[in-house]
Amino acid sequence: MDASTRVGASNAEKGISSGARKRRTSWTPAWVPYAQAAPLALVFFLFFILPLVATFVVSFWNYTEYSIEPAFVLSNYQDVFYGCFSGSPALCTTFATYLSTLKFVAIVWVATLLIGFTVAYFLAFHIRTLPMQIALFMVCTIPFWTSNVIRMISWIPLLGRNGLVNEMLTSIGLVDAPIEWLLYSDFAVALALVHLYTLFMVVPIFNSMMRIDRSLIEAAYDAGASGWQTLTNVIIPLVKPGILIGSIFVVTIVTGDYLTIGIMGGQQIASVGKTIQTQINFLQFPIAAANAIVLLAVVLLTIWGMLRLVDIRKEL
Amino acid sequence: MTILKETRGGITRRSILKASAALAGAGVVTKVTGFPAIAQEKVTLRYLSTAVNQSPAIAAKAGEDLGINIEYIAVTTDDVAKRVITQPNSFDLVDTEYFALPKLLPSGNIMGLDASKIKLSDKIASVIRNGTVDGKKVGLDGTAPTEVLYLPDEEATEFAGEETGFLTLIPTTYNADTLGIRPDLIDGPVDSWAALLDPKFKGKAATLNIPSIGIMDAAMAIEARGDMKYGDKGNMTREEIDKTIAVLIEAKRNGQFRAFWTDFNESVNLMASGEVVIQSMWSPAVTAVRTQGIECKYQPLKEGYRAWASGFGLPVAIGDREKDAAYEFINWFLSGWAGAHLAKQGYYTAVLETTKEAMEPYEWAYWFEGKPAEKDIMSPDGKLLEKAGATRDGGSYDERMGAVACWNAVMDENIYMIRKWNEFIAA
Q1: Could you tell me which PROSITE patterns the record lists for this protein (chain B) (predicted)?
Q2: Which of B78, B85, B275 sits opposite A160 (nearest CB)?
């Protein structure tokens, strides 16, 4: 999913920069820009477009325990949505899974946006010198010096039944028995996701804030705007692209995430990724492919919806 | 992808599978066969299995004794099967579970082993050969090795119903699994699989998120509780699957489970941290908890054990030189040293006689006869496992393997079962 956003973003950049270059260097032959773009296009074609097409094709195939057979059947998609439109009051597996994912997307998006915006605001407007800004920005990236699995696992001794938090709470007498919902729960999943992905919000918002012309803020101040009015009328509209890019990162990553949900949720919480993984492990490639296509469609729809809110090309 | 040694058919399902794997850009290791073998060069066997079975000491010793270079390819249980089917020429020797065979054999990628080339083939443990221990039949629910051991000929894709001269897999390790418990955190005895679903352990139980094994542990618990009786726990009907999953969903909604695990290490952590006090567990995991100095018991239960067995198979695409080396390696493997090395980690081995010869008498008495340890019991790498005086949970080989109730399995309704299992996880 993040690959697809990257493609989108870099294609946009490519379009703009090659267009600009074309005007500047009109004496070069017309094929030169194509040649320049070719290596990247080839890489995308081989490692992104082709696998994607293969996945799409395979999602219509038949399968047995040990083989997949070319065919054109819709049974994999019917299986994905098995029981979803039967009218029974209970949600089908797929809808329940997406609903649970959607819940995490909403929680994590709000939390990372609030934290990310605050951190970026502090870095951009309250730290005066560039070296200090860079230094503090580096501090934000320290957790990323290790793998995200390790970052997740470090929560376990902290939040567990006999973990540090529970031991502290019981020793100061706040609770009698250890709090169970700290680990292997929705709370733990949301906490870990926010921890993992806040930086994805900080970076683009910080970037947008640094581009704001400071004289605009001075002008707002001179015109008598309060701090809050400056924030809502000047800064937020100007950092919208940053917020949007950060949101796309967070939303797409959380939608496709299954490691964090698996580890922090004690594998008791469903995620689309985990469903796909289970199916692949049992060699049910076609239904896994169908699930992947559905997931891709959901993510693309989300991105499309978000891009309609802000015209990112114009803003960049 | 082009140099495939096709033995049957023209365009087959597996060639399509292979082609699609290549299409998907999978990192396919293609072995170029047909190069003249250079006599001086050491032959290399690419040994595909789970990491648990891959002891560096065995590879080193085989290199010393046979001059064969063992190159381990470590993947997860599910990935072993996946790789046999999708990348059949990426290995020369596979160590896989018997329960995967109903999937692997029809793919045509596994070749039968010629029993006449295996010196000790008639000495292979009776529980694998004909499902008996000490002359008595054990439970054969599920994919019992004896049912999938024989082939009518070397290139068969269906099992033979009777004893023949061709074997699917030569056993490497096998064992009887049960529930692991933390006796220090549990009041009162645990003696039945029903304990897994006992509300007494609410929020402190765990099971595996590997559907084929997890559902069998659940079935053992449900049957023990007296809720229902299964025709064959390893091959349930759709109705039985529905009922089993319904019970699991109810237990999950009531907060019975603390977590599920897929990886051996996760089960160790759950148990060692005290998050879980009772769970489905594998024998080496219990050992791993104990080596941390934490009490953990591999509790024998009155309904019996769920057993598994793993063994060597050969890919059809194997080269002649590698094939000879593989037979040589398998013969060496059965001859004692390797067996003893694995037995000291708690596994049972294919040929008990040679294992016994290669172990110290006190070690054999502890691991296989259920007697109290005369001396401290050490792991192969020299760590203290048990102090003198300890006995093995579950007792002797005959007591443990003799009490097997069912075997790890792939069901006929596997596809349906996985859909229902996903429903359980999403519930």
Answers
A1: TAT
A2: B275
- The range of the structural domain enclosing residue A155 comes to 59-315
Buried/exposed code over B194-220 (b: 16+ C-beta within 10 A; e: otherwise): bbbbbeebebbbbbbbbbbbbbbbbbb
Written as one letter, the residue type at A315 is: E
* Model confidence at B314: pLDDT above 90: yes
In a domain? residue A39: no
Residue A94 lies in a domain: yes
Measured between CB atoms, does B257 come within 8 Å of chain A? yes
Widest CA span of chain A, in angstroms? 79
pTM greater than 0.95: no
The span from the CA of B425 to the CA of B427, in Å, is: 6
pLDDT digits (tens, 9 = 90+) for B73-100: 988 877 898 899 989 989 999 999 999 9
Measured CA to CA, the distance from residue B94 to residue B117 in angstroms comes to: 18
Domain count, chain A: 1
Q: Structural domain boundaries of chain B?
A: 13-31+40-175+307-355, 180-303+408-426
* Phi, psi (degrees; rounded to nearest 5) at B97: -80, 150
pLDDT tops 90 at residue A247: yes
Whether the pLDDT of residue A26 is over 80: the answer is no
* SS3 state at B132: strand
CATH 1.10.730.10 fits B13-31+40-175+307-355, yes or no: no
Nearest one of B202, B172, B215, B124 to B342, comparing CA atoms: B172
Q: How far apart (Å, rounded) are the C-alpha atoms in residues B196 and B213? A: 14
Determine contact: A82 vs chain B, CB below 8 A.
yes
CA distance A93 to A95: 6
Beta-strand relationship, B348-349 and B170-181: antiparallel
Cβ-nearest to A68 among B20, B103, B273: B20
Which of A261, A268, A269 is best to mutate for the B interface (most B CBs within 10 A)?
A268
Q: How confident is the model at residue B288 (pLDDT cuts 50, 70, 90)?
A: confident
∠ CA B108-B111-B112, nearest 5°, is: 125
* Local confidence band at A316 (pLDDT 50, 70, 90 cut-offs): low
Structural element, H or E, at residue B256:
none
Higher-confidence residue of A146 and B277: namely B277
Task: Supply the mean pLDDT for chain A.
Answer: 87
Instruction: Test B262 with A267 for CB contact under 8 angstroms.
Output: yes
Here the CATH number for the domain that contains residue A151 is 1.10.3720.10
Q: Could you give the CA distance from residue B242 to residue B248 in angstroms, rounded to a whole number? A: 10
Residue B224 DSSP symbol: H
Of A259, A251, A257, nearest to A300 (Cα)? A251
Strand segments, DSSP code E, in B85-195 are: 93-97, 110-111, 113-114, 132-133, 136-137, 141-142, 150-151, 166-167, 170-181
Determine the Cα–Cα distance for residues B142 and B176; give it in Å rounded to an integer. Answer: 14
Q: Render pLDDT for A58-96 as a digit per residue (tens, 0 to 9).
A: 999 998 878 888 999 999 999 899 888 887 777 888 999
**Range list of H helices, B158-237:** 211-225
Decide yes or no: CATH 3.40.190.10 for domain B180-303+408-426.
yes
Compute the half-sphere exposure of residue A41: CA atoms within 13 Å on the CB side of its CA.
8
A26 domain residue, yes or no: no
Provide the residue count of chain A.
316
B29 three-state secondary structure: coil
CB of A75 less than 8 A from some CB of B: no
Q: Give the amino acid at A52.
A: L
Provide CB contacts within 8 A for A116, sequence distance 6+.
Answer: A198, A199, A200, A201, A202, A205, A246
